[in-house]
Amino acid sequence: MQPLLLRGARLPEGHVRDVLLDPGGGIVARVAPPGRLASGADELDLTGYLLLPAGAEPHAHLDKALTWDRVGAPAGDLLAAVEAWRAYTVQVTEEDVYQRAARTVDELCANGVTAVRTHVDLLTAGGDPLRGLRALLRLRKRLRGRVRLQIAVLHVDAPEKLLHEALDLGADLLGDCPHLSADPAASVARTLRVAAEHHVGVDLHADETLDTDAGDLRLLARTVRERGFGRGVTASHCVSLGAVEPDEAARTAKEVAAAGIGVVALPLTNLYLQGRGHPSRTPRGLTALRALLDAGVRVAAGGDNIRDPFNPVGRADPLETASLLVTAGHLTPDEALDAVTGGARAVLGLPAAGPYEGAVADLLAVRAESVSEVLGVSCPERLVFAGGRLVSRTSVVRELF
């Protein structure tokens, strides 16, 4: 594949540089001041664009995406959404999941995402319980070279035989939802054991509640340390950590860091679902981002549900997620951007990407001058590169009269 030279791009630090991509190796080969790199490669003028690491989506539910109008609007809390989705799954088919998931991944890619971790339910009502997984496995093959797709099987007290079947079929990780289990401790222990048998990582929906007595995250950290679980471990949501006193949040964050657990914040869905029982002084429904960062925990952020019973909105845009981390999570723009780029890739176990020599050439060029503009304006004009290849381009025509 022919090298690609990006001319005149502004890097996050503010410098304007030419960036040479090597699609054969999938890396950034050279970065130099404008005009220093010899031509001969294909060239693309990025004057006026900010060149960033591509986004990574660390927590999606592609099997549920784009079903809000089909399922109907539930009451708006987590359990109501769970029940609405379960009732709808009777009519969900493999092809239905495939088509909705493919459309959603296209939206994610166009917005700058080159890696996605999606959870998929075991659909125990209405036929083959693995039909959602089969659809996503088909999609994973189609996406090669454009979007890297990781699949986590999400279960709540499912038969163990079914977990083995799902992992044998090709799922990448095993998920769990301990706070919805009849026995959270037993559920976490079983999930880690089964994952270890298949040599895969785990990604748990943890403490998806404002209840300060919730203990999924502490339970997971303790169990990981006791078992010496050596694969990647992720805890998503962790909402209750943001509701406890600062000293307690700091102690738990240190335990999480010691266990090597990555944490995924999910502002869109958690802000929508959490806090409805508090009509005044409504809590934000986010995890304790600052305590986790201060403890050295790998922190990522994702969009979670995209226009399904758990969240009627969502643009499949990592920059929307990052913007919410600034306004609701009180992170700096640079910290928020890292949560959906470098931090997200770290949680997914992927090597660093960005406009730097030797980094993976997964890049997002946005017509903007600064990170704060990128997050504040949601600039629509974007070019997306995966492994050094241009995989998406969005141009805008604006007419004012």
Envelope shape: globular
- Total domains, how many? 2
According to DSSP, the number of beta strands is 16
| Number of helices, counting only DSSP H or I runs of 4 residues or more | 14
Q: Which range best describes the helical content: under 10%, 10-25%, 25-40%, 40-55%, 55-70% or over 70%?
A: 25-40%
**Strand order in the largest sheet:** 6-7-8-9-10-11-12-13
The CATH architecture name of the largest domain reads: Alpha-Beta Barrel
Question: How are helices and strands ordered from N to C?
Answer: EEEEEEHHHEHEHEHEHEHEHHEHHHEHEE
State the CATH class of the largest domain: Alpha Beta
Strand fraction equals: 15-25%
Fourth-level CATH superfamily of the largest domain: Metal-dependent hydrolases
Unreliable residue stretches: none
Broad structural category: alpha/beta
The averaged pLDDT comes out at 95
Descriptive overview:
The strands form three sheets. The chain has an eight-stranded parallel sheet. The chain has a four-stranded mixed sheet with strand order 3-2-1-4, with no helix packed on it. Helices cover 35% and strands 22% of the residues. The chain has two domains: 4-54 and 353-394, Urease, subunit C, domain 1 (Roll), CATH 2.30.40.10; 55-347, Metal-dependent hydrolases (TIM Barrel). It is built from 14 helices and 16 strands. It has 401 residues and is α/β, with parallel strands linked by helices. It starts with a strand and ends in a 7-residue tail after the last strand. The chain is globular.
